[in-house]
Amino acid sequence: MSLLEILEFPDPRLRKKAVPVEKVDHVLKQTIDDMFETMYAASGIGLAATQVNIQKRFLIIDLADEEEEDNPLVFINPEITVLDPEPYRHEEGCLSVPGYFEFVERPSKVLVKALNKEGAPFEIEAEGLLAVCIQHEIDHLNGKLFVDYLSVLKRQRIKSKLEKEHKQKTSA
Ligand code: GNR
Ligand code: NI
């Protein structure tokens, strides 16, 4: 297993639209294992392939906190439909936008159809944090970030601050 590099806003590679996975094979499974290792190391609850510079449609989620057993979820070629459009407001963060947390409104209930790690189809209805997280991750696959839901001013401030941090890192 190995840790993967997580791209950070405003990296243009985060804006690419991912293409469907054609085959669920051992190479994909290896990548998924690396993504779980990377996500746990960063204390995240979700990670989309786009964030580790793989432009394919799959994502992982594990909402379990430190006291609980791991509950790893894998979604390959996910398709989402809204079951309840009633806005649900939740404070979001993103491993690709480190250090920033802002409230975002999304549909409160969704149905997701996907393939699991074995390539078998499944579907789940999601509400609460799981619904938030799935929508956040599918946005990544479409080149979208949670900062896109904020005001231009807020997004610009986050962008400038992160660019400044990135410059300091590369010149150190
Ligand atoms: O770790 C994460 N926490 C989080 C909190 C609220 C809403 C969404 C998320 S996802 C984020 C990990 C991440 O960046 N996934 O793309
Ligand atoms: Ni994210």
Question: What does this entry look like structurally?
Answer:
- This protein is α+β, with helices and mostly antiparallel strands.
- It contains three helices and five strands.
- The chain has a five-stranded antiparallel beta sheet with strand order 1-2-3-4-5.
- Strand 4 and strand 5 (121-127) form a beta hairpin.
- The structure holds ligand GNR and nickel (II) ion (NI).
- Residues 94-96, 136, 140 line the site of nickel (II) ion.
What attributes does this structure have?
172 residues; alpha+beta; five-stranded antiparallel sheet; globular; binds ligand GNR; binds nickel (II) ion
Specify the overall morphology: globular
Largest sheet: 5 strands, antiparallel
Order of helices and strands: HEEEEEHH
Strand order of the largest sheet: 1-2-3-4-5
Beta fraction of the residues? 25-35%
How far apart the termini lie comes to 29 Å
- Cα-atom radius of gyration: 16 Å
Our count of helices gives 3
The helix-and-strand class reads alpha+beta
**Distinct ligand kinds:** ligand GNR, nickel (II) ion
Unreliable parts: none
Count of strand segments: 5
Mean pLDDT: 97
Helix content: 25-40%
